Amino acid sequence: MVQRRDDGPGDAERSEVSGRPPLLSHDELVRAQAETLDTPRRRYGVLARVLFTTLDTLYGKKRTLSKFKVLELVARVPYQTWEQVAYIAITHMHNRVGLARRIYDRVRESREQQDNEQWHLLILEELIAGSGKRENRLYYFWVPQAIALVYYHISWLLFVLRPAWSYRLNADFEDHAEHEYMYLVTEHPEWETTPFDSDFAADYGSFDSVADLLRQIGHDERFHKEESIKALANPRFH
Ligand SMILES: [Fe+2]
After folding, report:
1. What's the pLDDT at 12?
2. pLDDT tens, residue by residue, 112-163
3. 237, 91 in Cβ contact below 8 A?
């Protein structure tokens, strides 16, 4: 059964907002992982391939939590640009109430997606801190900030010029993240019995193991990918 995250009192309305991925049970997560591993990756566009090659060059091809943290830092960026551009659009179109309402729904969706990616980032940061690994500050703090800044401008420009390009780039990015998370779990059987003990469990969800947590994150990325593909059918606010 697909459950919704625990929203807390008074937040029933928020759970209706699109952009929030469902929270899955252990069996559903195992099934989702198998589905992803059985599904070929999308045919990535040039910009997505440049981004993935840059990340592989800087952080290596090996899947590490530190590399995933960089991925998460970048993952939030398109949702920020979509939210900001949509807000500006409301400023220009507030007199067309129906349209302004639809744009606002996009704003809310972008916020939900952004927040979801935010939890991924914070949880990975927590896992890395818990592992005792010390990261090189240049490689894992400053360089990712620079990548996120460049990606921000690319996403913004694509969205302003042709929203479909921005949605397609994000679908590629999320498809890549979904596959990478599911493969990461297969590489760490020890995580099946490692408990997920987190300060963010109340916000993000509780899981039996770190393996399930990472499967859930992988499934969230799939959900985000599907939302971007859906938006491709009607990329402009009109
Ligand atoms: Fe993510």
Report:
1. 41
2. 999 999 999 999 999 999 999 999 999 999 999 999 999 999 999 999 899 9
3. no
User: Cβ(33)–Cβ(185) under 8 Å?
Assistant: yes
What's the 202 CA to ligand 1 centre distance in angstroms? 18
Burial of residue 101 (CB within 10 Å: 0-12, 13-18, 19+) is: exposed
Nearest of 176, 184, 220 to residue 44 by alpha carbon:
176
Distance 227 CA to ligand 1 centre (A): 14
Domains defined along the chain, listed by start: 43-231 (1.20.1260.140)
Cα dist. 22→69, 129, 206, 226 in Å?
22, 27, 13, 13
Rounded to whole angstroms, how far apart are CA atoms 96 and 31? 44
